[in-house]
């Protein structure tokens, strides 16, 4: 479904992912974990085609319209005055197009998705007026109508209350049972162990990738931490990665 071939991704020459190789099989259900700044979001964006590799490549089987991507909540601007209904309807975008008609069948799908995430009665509320848990439910309803083969989730449960987390986790399990490929960035090891059969542990480079029980070992976690501490040591030395600006003549 997704093949990473010696993938390196850099921001202004500073690699956030180095030489990552491996495959996400069709129907696989994988957690991506690692310390802060270890390249987890960068990996999802690279799979989504939002970032261009500095080296190597990412090959993705499904067409773009069959890939769904949920960014980290902190990266989403929801000040735009859009209703819950319209936000979910956007999930049908690839089938409706700019001038297409929203058929009764699509309207039913949107209504069913809103019902499934427990937001009936919220259809006309603006997304900006929702709590973060309610907004995450809206985004999951949008993923439901998108009907994607490959689903990328970046920290979907961070800052969610336990009821929302349980409801959304149930949806993710359902996607897995339907044979969709799910890749989710998570930070709760207990949650990963309980729900995700496969895990990819990143620390800019690949630390381990395989069965969750074999990846989440003290040795691997210690190695990831040690690598992350080494970046902090460098932070003082290369605190800016911009090219030095030429001094102005006095
Ligand atoms: P994670 O999701 O694992 O916390 P990210 O993929 O967001 O990590 O970031 C990996 C590294 O790349 C971090 O050091 C981060 O500061 C850096 N980075 C991320 N996005 C940008 C950007 N747009 N410009 C410059 N550096 C970035
Ligand atoms: Mg991130």
Instruction: Give a count of the beta strands, DSSP E runs of length 2 or more.
Output: 9
Could you say what the CATH architecture of the largest domain is?
3-Layer(aba) Sandwich
Radius of gyration from the alpha-carbon trace, in angstroms: 20 Å
**Basic shape:** globular
What binds here, in terms of ligands, is: adenosine-5'-diphosphate, magnesium ion
User: How confident overall, as mean pLDDT?
Assistant: 90
Number of helices: 9
- Helix content estimate: 25-40%
Instruction: Indicate the multimeric state.
Output: single chain
Determine the strand fraction and express it as a percent band.
15-25%
The neighbouring-strand order within the major sheet is: 5-6-7-3-8-9
* Stretches with pLDDT under 50, minimum 5 residues: 236-250
The arrangement of helices and strands along the chain is EEEHEEHHHHEHEHEEHH
Question: CATH topology of the largest domain, anyone?
Answer: Rossmann fold
Feature tags:
about 250 residues, alpha/beta, Rossmann fold, 2 domains, three-stranded antiparallel sheet, 9 strands, globular, disordered C terminus, binds adenosine-5'-diphosphate, binds magnesium ion
Q: What report would you give on this structure?
A:
Residues 236-250 have low confidence and may be disordered. By secondary structure, the protein is of the alpha/beta class. The protein contains nine helices and nine strands. The protein is globular, with a radius of gyration of 20 Å. Strand 6, helix 6 and strand 7 (181-185) form a beta-alpha-beta unit. It has two domains: 1-62 and 150-157 and 180-250, 3-Layer(aba) Sandwich (Rossmann fold); 69-148, no CATH class. The relative contact order is 0.18. Helices cover 36% and strands 24% of the residues. It has helices at 40-47, 84-89, 93-96, 104-116, 132-146, 162-177, 189-195, 212-215, 218-235; strands at residues 2-11, 14-24, 29-33, 55-60, 67-70, 150-154, 181-185, 198-203, 205-211. Strands 5-6-7-3-8-9 form a six-stranded mixed sheet, with helices on both faces. It has a three-stranded antiparallel sheet with strand order 2-1-4, covered by helices on one side. Helix 4 crosses helix 5 (132-146).
